[in-house]
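Running this now, will post back.
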Amino acid sequence: MSQDCIFCKIAAGQIGGPPLFQDEHVTAFRDVNPQAPLHVLLIPNKHIVSLNEANAEDQALLGHLMLTAVKLAQAEGVANGGYRLVANTGPNGGQSVFHLHLHLLAGRRLTWPPG
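Update: finished.
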């Protein structure tokens, strides 16, 4: 856990409301600035700055993160209609919180290209 990381504090239960989902590896919560009718953030409880800093030892964690996104899409009723998973990496990739996270976006037709 990073002392200054807002997502680490959310995963630890120090700030924010109850998570939408949490287990020993992953925490999911609704985005405070939603960009779609459904906008959930999924974070590893382990502090990893971005995908660039993930390594082979994180492989199972990254897979668990993805499969948790699928379960949440199913639980939220958007799996059949479709959804988007986004992992912004670095400043030019749009990353603004430097703790690896996935955006689960759904609930409307999402356009391409995204930005």
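The chain has one domain: 6-106. More later if anyone needs it.
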